[in-house]
Amino acid sequence: MTGGGDRGSSDPAAAAEAELLRGFETLAVARPDPSAGVYEVRLNRPAQRNALSPAAFAEIPRAMSLLDRLPSARAVVLSAAGPHFCAGIELGGPGNPLTAAYSKGSDPVAAAEGLRRVILEMQEALTAIERCRKPVIAAVHGACVGGGVDVVAACDIRCCSRDATFVLKEVDMAIVADLGGLQRLPRIVGYGNAADLALTGRKITAMEAKEMGLVSRVFDSKKELDAGVAKIAKEIAEKSAWAVMGTKAVLLRSRDVTVEQGLEHVATWNAAMLRSNDLKEAIRAFLEKRKPVFSKL
User: Is 150 an annotated catalytic residue?
Assistant: First the structure.
């Protein structure tokens, strides 16, 4: 992450805000409604159908890290500019890390190790979406291809417009999908559906994605998608930030362990979190029949 001018800042939130204002090459990050704790991270290479370039893999974790640290960010919407959500990994572009690693040196072992490091770094870039403590809601329209599906799978809630399509194309490119789709999709849509998508490389519609659980809501148009996702994000942002972040953390932890281990984890979590001021405020607001006013982060 850049931002050397703010390294000495005693206010991490102000430093994160200043860093966001510097802007991005492949993303557009904004707070559409200053009164709401919702930020939008928009893939912003419409001429390239938002293909994931080396710069995108560097900027996605940077944006997510900044929003994770920003108290005013309570929920994040991940969307895309132009007619399509994402065309997958950009192939053959200048500075492509896969090509560079593959052609580096004459020692095949060194080349393989270099390629492995590149893949791990790209995986970490998308895992940053999952690791952001704030819930991330994907708003998908148009084509969502390959690496775009991996991006969506790392989000917490997935919505799309009726014109959206989803396809894992890696098998048709003679490669194994390696950015998280094969690991996350079986937990989202079940092993059989994930195998169907990954092994056939077939394109599915928004309604089929809804039927298998890849997305939870389908909107009739891009305009309705944007409005609907903004409403979902705003509703989440108005809840206790501690409860929301804790729920995300426990869901992710429980996904990867047994039920018994997950129950033990949430018991330990709530042993501390049930003493929060937000819980006291929620109870008071319920008894007084008013909307709660939760604490800032």
Answer: yes
